[in-house]
Design brief:
Layout: H1 5-11, E1 28-32, E2 38-42, E3 46-54, H2 59-72, E4 75-80, E5 83-86, E6 97-106, H3 110-123, E7 138-144, E8 149-150, E9 155-156, H4 165-173, H5 182-190, H6 196-204, E10 215-221, E11 224-226, E12 233-239, H7 254-266, E13 271-275, H8 288-302, E14 312-316, H9 320-328, E15 333-336, H10 346-353, E16 357-360, H11 380-397, E17 405-408, H12 417-425, H13 427-435, H14 439-442, E18 447-448, H15 454-460, H16 469-481, E19 486-489, H17 492-511
Parallel strand pairs: 12-13, 12-19, 13-14, 14-15, 15-16, 16-17, 18-19
Antiparallel strand pairs: 1-2, 3-6, 3-7, 4-6, 5-6, 5-10, 8-9, 10-11
Length: 513
């Protein structure tokens, strides 16, 4: 049946994909198959999947430039797989690869697309060499619309998809557990498995291959590849504001801020998250200029701190100007509580900055987020997951790859006490709901920030935020056992201890599964 798809499309017969049964009135191209028959292929916009690989030079730079060139060549990327560092296959005496895949649309015909990708490879320095040997960039067409192509120069689906975990893993990431169109159904059918590509992936080993077969998911940050899955990472909070709910006014001087940074680093913080605008409920928004006036002296001082060497810094802002300036001053991560909703330019700016982006869920803004309307949920985990994925999708369409995104369900932001508890207990269901739309998004690191928040005070009857540290540890523990990867906390020392216990428990559970 599979080899009959193209002839059925050509002659308008009713095949397995009725949407494409007729090409009447459509501009078409022709190519010669290996048996010299001429086959007509629709050249209107087609959905494609393209694999990327690199193991020579600056691998991340090669990926970034390839994606940029693809965009300029008429390939609109809509989704990205996760980023994998993998051991080389076939020819093993060579450097480790970075691998991923992208999904998008193009009006280029299949052979025109092939020529375009080969030209990008050439422009990025690829030359003829050993087959399966080192290369600065490798771009392969995995799928082209619903078509099977077998010509002298191009075979689609790519003939070695089915045996390569380093290709299949990021390809699976481009899908959701719920098929969203006929083209994806065709891609699944090409696997010749009843369960489609998912069955094929499971037969190869599925998730068990990650970390075991020379493959690991990584997030590029600074000059390193960050494997966030090995252990919990602790993000220490530094507020440079006069009105934050927990420590407003304590760190407004440069000296006090630097002292607190040194303290959190000495206590084991992996990341320092710096904010110069309060996002507590009912907080008034300040201008980017005022935010920067609080921030820049501290960022300048950080560059003189020996203890900061090798540590990561993030900027807690929803202003694009602030994000851009902070990154120019050495900040590594942009942490946006609005997920791109409060400044329409921030997604494009972060895309160009090429830094990790924390996408948080919030309805409204700090002034309105606790309104009756914004607190209305029928199923908080399902709705937060859906709305959060919508923000992730917008980020990807703006050019921020999935492999640079961290997701945050937004504990305390447009949620009441019950909602916050349901989310802390429901992180697996949030991942599962996101997976129905995008497996790549479901694999993103999850950041949670329950630290000292009002709902903990309501439960424990503590008005003073600092008195909520033991409750914070309980909330953090619940989140970590449910799959969170990063905790954003004020008290680094005690929460680091809690995270180590959680890591040990999870490792024990995994070993005895």
């Amino acid at each position: 049946m599979f080899n009959q798809i193209l002839p059925m499309l050509k002659y308008g017969q009713k095949g397995p994909f009725p949407k494409w049964t007729s090409l009447k009135g459509m501009r078409s191209l022709f190519f010669h198959s290996s048996v010299d028959s001429i086959v007509e292929v629709n050249s209107l916009e087609q959905e494609v999947a393209i694999a990327l690989g690199s193991n020579v030079g600056d691998r991340m730079h090669n990926f970034n430039e390839a994606l940029n060139m693809m965009k300029k060549s008429g390939i609109c990327v809509t989704r990205h797989g996760c980023l994998y560092e993998t051991k080389p296959a076939y020819v093993t005496d060579q450097p480790l690869f970075l691998n991923s895949a992208v999904r998008g649309f193009t009006k280029l015909g299949p052979h025109e697309l092939l020529r375009t990708l080969k030209q990008i490879e050439k422009d990025l320095g690829r030359t003829d060499g050993i087959r399966y040997g080192p290369r600065p960039i490798d771009l392969d067409i995995l799928f082209y619309g619903k078509f099977k192509i077998d010509s002298e120069t191009l075979v689609v689906p790519h003939e070695r998809i089915w045996e390569r975990p380093f290709v299949l893993a990021p390809l699976i990431d481009l899908l959701g557990t719920s098929n969203d169109n006929d083209t994806l159904m065709a891609w699944h059918s090409f696997s010749r498995k009843t369960g489609g590509l998912f069955e094929l992936w499971e037969k190869l080993g599925g998730e068990s291959l990650i970390e075991k077969e020379g493959m690991r998911r990584v997030l590029p940050v600074g000059n390193r590849l960050w494997d966030w899955s090995k252990r919990t990472h602790v993000m220490g909070v530094l507020n440079l504001t006069p009105d934050s709910f927990s420590d407003g006014g304590k760190y407004q001087s440069v000296e006090a801020a630097v002292s607190q940074i040194k303290k959190m680093i000495s206590e084991g913080a992996d990341i320092i998250d710096i904010g110069a605008q309060s996002t507590r409920p009912l907080a008034q928004r300040i201008s980017p200029e005022e935010e920067l006036s609080r921030l820049i002296p501290v960022l300048d001082a950080i560059q003189e701190i020996p203890e900061a060497e090798g540590k990561l810094f993030s900027i807690d802002t929803f202003h694009s100007e602030v994000a851009s300036e902070a990154v120019s001053k050495g900040v590594h991560i942009v942490n946006d509580v609005s997920g791109g909703k409060l400044d329409t330019n921030i997604l494009e700016v972060v895309s160009k900055l090429r830094v990790p982006y924390v996408v948080m869920h919030m309805r409204g803004d700090p002034l309105t987020m606790q309104s009756k309307e914004n607190l209305c949920y029928n199923n908080v985990c399902k709705e937060v997951a859906s709305e959060l994925y919508s923000r992730v999708n917008d980020a990807e369409l703006s050019g921020i790859p999935a492999w640079r995104i961290i997701i945050d369900p937004g504990i305390g932001f447009s949620k009441n006490c019950k909602d916050n508890l349901e989310m802390l207990m429901g992180l697996p269901s949030i991942r599962g709901e996101i997976a129905s739309k995008s497996l790549a998004a479901s694999h993103m690191p999850i950041l949670i920030g329950p630290s000292r928040k009002k709902f903990l005070g309501q439960i424990c009857d503590h008005q003073n935020a600092i008195e909520r540290d033991p409750a914070t540890i309980a909330a953090v523990t619940s989140g970590l056992l449910g799959g969170a990867n990063i905790i954003r906390v004020h008290n680094v020392k005690d929460n680091l201890d809690a995270s180590r216990v959680c890591d040990a428990l999870l490792k024990h559970k995994k070993c005895h599964a």
